[in-house]
Amino acid sequence: MDTTISKTADACHSTFDPIGFLQKVVSIDSCDPPGGELEIARLVHEQLLTLGVASELDEFLPGRANVLGRIRGTGEKSAIVLSSHMDTVPVGTVSWKRPPFSGETDGGRLYGRGATDMKGALVSMIGAAGSLAKKAHQLKGDVILAFTAGESANLLGARRFIEQGLKDEIGAFLCGEPSGLDVIIVEKAALWLRATATGRLGHVSGAAGINAIDVTHEFLGRLKGVELDCPPHPLLDEPTIRVGRIEGGSAVNLTPDHCIVDFDIRLPPGVDHLRIVRQIEGIAPENVRISILDFKPAVESLPDDDFVQLCSEVCTRHRGESPAIKGVSYYSDGTVLLEGLSVPFAIIGPGELGLSGQPDESVSIDNVLKAVNIYEDVALAWLS
Predict the structure, then answer these.
(1) From CA 49, how far away is CA 68, in angstroms rounded?
(2) How confident is the model over 266-300, as pLDDT tens digits?
(3) What's the fold here for domain 3-187+299-382?
(4) What residue segments make up the domains of the chain, in order of their start?
(5) Three-state DSSP class for 198?
(6) How do residues 3-14 score in pLDDT, each as one tens digit?
(7) What's the longest Cα–Cα distance across the chain?
(8) In terms of pTM, does the model score above 0.85?
(9) 189-296 in CATH: which number?
(10) Nearest of 335, 363, 361, 379 to residue 131 by alpha carbon
């Protein structure tokens, strides 16, 4: 399916209640898998139009949709992209104290899956866009709102934007992933590998065969002891290896002849991921084959970059204190949208680090409101 709805904003503008709107989008289940961002995308699309922002809704797969908003400037400068995603990770099996899609508020916080990662930022960017639409005459370049589907797993929406040519327009990239309103300037690369162990079928009543699960167990023991050959980074912790999925065997009384392990490796910028693959292959038993599932490159700006300095100054003004300059282990849509580009990049989000994917996920209401002003002021200053 490829359904794109493009509309130009009406001349009139409307007021916007960020917290009320956040409650609406948190109440909509957009967990990935399976996704299903379309309902949120429609709500966001219509809200942008109501605020006077031109918007396109693109349902590129059944139930999977992006929204592209645009406030046109004079064209003297390249566009700034405000990036957010509309999907969330699953709720999980641990009990929540509050219903995960309630959007309840208590003690200055709003609760629900996606409140921190990253519907809070999505709503703040919409609020900023509503204000910026009234000041379009001050903008020397476009403000583009790139709201995606499927970021949490395989970046479906960002890859769709690349197909449509968005990458060519990016002059600066401000992402709303969780940061606690600190300024993040580097995110790790994500290398997803699969180890496939091959054995030989056997039966308890006959030949034992070769147990692929036992082979996998041996491999995992070796993997646990691997020290990845990576240089240290001043803003990042050590590289990590995390096993995420294991599948093997067909019956309790048959020796399994096949077992797979999928695992995630996070790396600092500048590391040749193929060299890491070779390192993992070097510790694998003879009958274990290593293959690449995906590679998401690292993204980095330097602390003295003009855009980073601007982001820091704006955050200081609205927070009343200087933000920390940090690095993170997660990836964002920037990993594919910025690949091969040399453009300013930063992450500022109202959500807190460490709350993504947790039970009783929540976001500070004050942070969401401050983020509205931060996004607006960064865009205005950058495009002045």
Answers:
(1) 11
(2) 999 999 999 999 999 999 999 999 999 999 999 99
(3) Aminopeptidase (3.40.630)
(4) 3-187+299-382, 189-296
(5) strand
(6) 666 666 554 446
(7) 81
(8) yes
(9) 3.30.70.360
(10) 379
